[in-house]
Specification:
One of its GO terms (molecular function) is methylthioadenosine nucleosidase activity. The chain is an alpha/beta fold. The protein has a single domain, classed as Rossmann fold (3-Layer(aba) Sandwich), CATH 3.40.50. 36% of the residues lie in helices and 20% in strands.
């Protein structure tokens, strides 16, 4: 199954689950409880922490963090796991062979980073992208023992112009993802086929 956040980021071949950590977790859980879901491919836009990333780049991701700035500054801790990985990129080369899709870790938060120094801190931590929903998506997939991956297209850099840049590039992002619709849908099929090897099952 292919899913997306919705709220302006809709795709004809994807089901909307809601924006942010909470809405997406609730929405995806409801789908998993009501329907037979044998794979989850989450698609959407992402901000880039580093200028080494190009606007319009497509990333194939199976690892997400839920980290706030205070954690990186050693001013807070969390008793829960703040980094999760579905591991599907290691299941089979057929899932990850496309050379146009890069790899990277995604951080999720209900807030958008607009400070370049904060973005630099995430970059130094090895985190490439920012997307509000992906951590919740992997967490729900983990709970229901469903193989999961993300396909994210970079819409903006995480700096003071993040929102304006996102708005300027949002149509392009949706067009880029639509252009790869067949590949994305095939990813869902491949994940379902390999579900027996999924580390969560």
């Amino acid at each position: 199954m292919v899913v997306c956040a919705g709220n302006g980021e809709h795709f004809t071949f994807a089901k909307s689950i809601g924006v942010g950590l909470c809405e997406s977790a609730i929405g995806l859980s409801q789908i998993c409880l009501k329907e037979y879901v044998d794979s989850i491919v989450f698609i959407g836009s992402a901000g880039a922490y580093s200028r080494d990333v190009q606007i319009g780049d497509i990333y194939l991701c199976d690892r997400a963090t839920q980290i706030e700035l205070s954690f990186l500054e050693d001013k807070s801790y969390t008793p829960i796991d703040n980094c999760i990985q579905s591991g599907v990129l290691a299941l089979d080369e057929s899932v990850s062979h496309e050379t146009f899709a890069k790899r990277g870790i995604v951080n999720s938060s209900n807030y958008i980073t607009t400070d370049k120094n904060v973005a630099l801190a995430f970059t130094k931590a090895g985190i490439v992208l920012e997307n509000m929903e992906f951590f919740s998506v992997i967490k729900v997939a983990q709970y229901f023992h469903i193989p999961c991956i993300g396909v994210l297209c970079v819409s903006n850099y995480c700096d003071k112009n993040a929102h304006e840049e996102f708005m300027q590039n949002h149509t392009m992002v949706k067009q880029r993802l639509m252009a790869h619709a067949a590949w994305i849908q095939n990813l869902s099929y491949l994940l379902a086929k390999k579900a027996g090897d999924n580390p969560y099952v």
